Amino acid sequence: MQCVQFDVRGQILEHLKKYPQAVLEKLDSVDISLNVDGLPLFESNNQSLWPVLCCINLSPKSIFPLSLALVSSKPTSLNFISETVSKLENVMQNGLEWGDKVIRVQIRCITCDAPANALVKCIKQYSGYFGCDRCTQKGFWDGRMTYQEVENLTLRTDQSFREVTQLEHHHEGKTSPFSNLSIDMVTSFPVDYMHQCCLGVMKKLLLLWTKGKKETRMSSGQIKEVSVRLEQLKTAIPNNFARKPRGLEHLERWKATEFRQFALYTGKLVLRGVLQDDLFEHFMAFSVAMCMLISPSLVQAHCSYVHELLSFFVQQGRFLYGECFLVYNVHSMLHLAADAKKIGCLDNCSAFPFENYLHHLKKLVRSGRSPLVQIVKRLNEGGSLRRELTEKEGKVSSKHPNNIYMLNDKACCEVLSTTPEKNDGTQMFLCRVYNHLEPYTSSPCDSRLYGAIRTNIRNTSMKLLSEICLKQRAIMFEEEYGSRVFFTILHSFS
Ligand SMILES: [Zn+2]
After folding, report:
1. Using alpha carbons only, what angle is made at residue 248 by residues 244 and 254, rounded to the nearest 5 degrees?
2. Contact 364, 374 (CB under 8 A)
3. How many angstroms does the Cα of residue 292 sit away from the middle of ligand 1?
4. Is there a single domain that holds both residue 72 and residue 148?
């Protein structure tokens, strides 16, 4: 194994320096997230890159590596992580000297997919009998590992983890390098919604509907109908989405962002009236729960309701799809609401920004010779020291479909044109404002709660609005007879 260790303190300081002075002056502590994941480098051999990435959770986020290891196949030792973690421990204990003050450093979370999570925590894989890292239930082997208990789960705690109270959960004789840090060894490793909800549960449902058992599969005509509807939505998806919807014939190639788009927004539209009612109602519980856990304000206000929705989703999933539905990713939905509440919202602990950075790192390798040398050289050239922008916000546009906004819970609008800038730099926007917002659906709850509404072009008036009103972007879908559906864009684009 080849490994490059960066100076952890130096890296954090260097990236902090890029923030405006006004931000830094107020800073007493800095909140970081970590990510450990493997990335295959070449198709011709099984070499993979295992970076430990750090994200400074300021706006915009800044992501950079703390170490890079090159391994053939899977890493067998955690030495490459141990060294990084011990440097981090030093930084957490002593803080960062910054002028005449010391900035404390704290870890918000360590985001990994399930296999990497098991590796870095020295615990059994999710496919093992005691593989859930949040509760102590024993799995049930049903062709693959499933977790049948839904209620009265015994949760793991930092203490039970450190005292190894359930021996079968841990790899005997191995201790996670992270246990040297003053973090909670259970809740600091949250469920990652990119892997577990988007690439996990959402993909699983779509595969069940297209390739699963006859009773829960859509007919070929229905699959085609959903694909046609997805294609039709292309023109409604704003440019801050990385991808436009594409049909189910491409499902195997869908990326995580496409599953997210389907789970949060388009699925509600394209499945309605096509997927059988009980399966649609079940999907809606998942979709609405995701919508609410992504929004910081809704998470705090409705966490226990969302947990009920997700419990229903898991229980009812067993009834609809059989016991084999309760695989680890589905089971982990029972732990999702608590994680989102603790960390603020799902976007605060997701792998999406890290995943983008990993792709960026991969692009720095242009040939098979000394990949680590190439990466470090190109990082030093400044290639990746750019600041990761959290949101492609940009200017207010009057061009469809980038001109849609929610104004408040009683009105939404389309920006139609822009007036010339005044001397003081302000601008006004001519908007078609929609009133009389009805819920898009009332099941499982009034959808206005998570910003999904229906209105009609008859309920509009023209108004001049200032930029300050146009903060919350939305998506508008046109239906027949002047009906319009608006979905608030809930997730962050980082
Ligand atoms: Zn569990």
Report:
1. 55
2. yes
3. 21
4. no
Question: What distance in Å separates the CA atoms of residue 428 and residue 136, rounded to the nearest whole number?
Answer: 58
Alpha carbon 399 to chain centroid, angstroms: 28
Residue 24: what residue type?
Answer: L
Of 16, 158, 213, which Cα lies nearest the Cα of 97? 16
Residue from 113, 84, 109 nearest 12 by CA? 84
Domain count, the chain: 4
Rounded to whole angstroms, the Cα distance separating 453 from 211 reads 32
How far is 138 from 270, CA to CA, in rounded Å? Answer: 38
pLDDT band at 382 (very low <50, low <70, confident <90, very high): low
CA of 52 relative to ligand 1 center, distance in Å: 26
CA–CA distance, 166 with 143 (Å, rounded to integer): 24
Residue 494 located in a structural domain: no
Q: Residue 192 C-alpha to ligand 1 middle, in angstroms?
A: 14
Q: Tell me, what amino acid is at 159? A: Q
Q: Do 179 and 217 belong to one domain?
A: no
Q: Please give the C-alpha separations between residue 116 and each of 56, 82, 256, in angstroms, as whole numbers.
A: 21, 15, 18
Q: Which residues surround ligand 1, an ion (CB under 5 A)?
A: 132, 134-135
Residue 249 sits in the same domain as residue 337 = yes
Tell which of 159, 189, 219 closes a domain. Answer: 189
Residue 464, domain extent: 404-488
Q: Which of 146, 161, 189 is the last residue of a domain?
A: 189
**Domain co-membership, 202 together with 338:** yes
Tens digits of residue pLDDT in 176-215: 999 999 999 999 999 999 999 999 999 999 999 999 999 9
* C-alpha 169 – ligand 1 centre gap (Å): 12
Query: Do residue 167 and residue 253 come from a single domain?
Result: no
At 72 the pLDDT is 83
Pair (130, 156) in one structural domain: yes
